Design the sequence.
C-alpha cells in the first residue's frame, strides 16, 4: 500500500460540529473583549447589541455538539468523542520530551489533544453556567451573581489562551489542519503519528487481520 494514499479522518458531521463551534467561540471572544475592555467598547459602541449577540451565542454554544450526537448521523462523532476518555501508555508518553518518548503507536488523538478537549469542554460548560447566572439570576442572588462574574471573567482569559494555543498548534501541523477541512489525511502521517489508529483502520477495511497485528504466537520472531 502506497504511503501517500489518504485516509478518512473526519466525516462531514464532525467537521460541521467543529467549525460551527469554532465560529461561535470566536464570536464569544470578540464580543466578550468588547464588553470587557472599555477602550474597545467606546470604539465599537452598540453595547446592547453586542451583549445580546454574546448571550445568544453563549446559550447556543453547545448546540452543534448536541445536534451532532442526537441524530442518526452521530456514529463517527460518538466514536471519536469516546476516544477522548480512553487513555493508554502512548498518551502519557506524549508528554515526555521528544528525545525521551518510547515511540509507542498512538491513537487517533494524542495525549495533548485529549487534555485540550477535556479542558475546553469543561470551561465551555462552566462559562455557560456562570453566564446564565449573570444574565438571569434574580436580584436576591447578588452574591451568586458577583461570584459568577469573577469566575466568568477568569474563564474568558483561560479560553482565549486555550484557543490561541489551539490555533498555533493547528497552523504548525498542516496535515491535521487540512484534514479538518477535507476530512482526509495522508496514510504516511497516520503511520508516523497515529500508528494504533492506522492499525484500527486497516483491520476495519480488511487490509490486515488482528492476528497479523498481534504478531507470531508467543511474540517470537519467525
Sequence:
Amino acid at each position: 500500500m502506497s504511503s501517500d494514499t489518504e485516509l478518512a479522518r473526519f466525516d462531514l458531521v464532525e467537521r460541521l460540529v467543529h467549525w460551527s463551534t469554532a465560529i461561535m467561540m470566536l464570536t464569544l471572544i470578540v464580543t466578550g473583549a468588547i464588553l470587557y475592555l472599555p477602550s474597545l467598547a467606546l470604539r465599537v459602541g452598540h453595547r446592547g447589541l453586542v451583549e445580546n449577540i454574546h448571550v445568544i451565542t453563549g446559550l447556543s454554544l453547545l448546540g452543534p455538539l448536541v445536534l451532532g450526537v442526537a441524530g442518526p448521523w452521530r456514529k463517527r462523532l460518538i466514536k471519536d468523542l469516546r476516544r477522548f476518555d480512553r487513555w493508554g501508555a502512548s498518551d502519557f508518553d506524549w508528554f515526555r520530551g521528544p528525545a525521551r518518548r518510547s515511540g509507542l503507536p498512538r491513537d487517533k488523538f494524542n495525549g495533548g489533544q485529549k487534555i485540550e478537549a477535556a479542558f475546553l469542554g469543561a470551561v465551555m460548560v462552566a462559562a455557560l453556567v456562570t453566564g446564565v447566572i449573570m444574565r438571569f439570576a434574580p436580584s436576591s442572588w447578588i452574591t451568586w451573581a458577583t461570584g459568577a462574574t469573577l469566575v466568568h471573567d477568569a474563564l474568558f482569559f483561560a479560553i482565549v489562551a486555550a484557543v490561541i494555543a489551539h490555533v498555533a498548534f493547528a497552523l504548525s501541523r498542516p496535515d491535521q489542519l487540512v484534514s479538518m477541512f477535507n476530512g482526509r489525511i495522508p496514510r504516511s502521517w497516520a503511520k508516523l503519528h497515529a500508528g494504533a489508529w492506522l492499525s484500527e483502520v486497516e483491520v476495519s477495511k480488511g487490509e490486515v487481520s488482528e492476528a497479523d497485528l498481534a504478531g507470531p504466537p508467543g511474540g517470537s520472531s519467525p
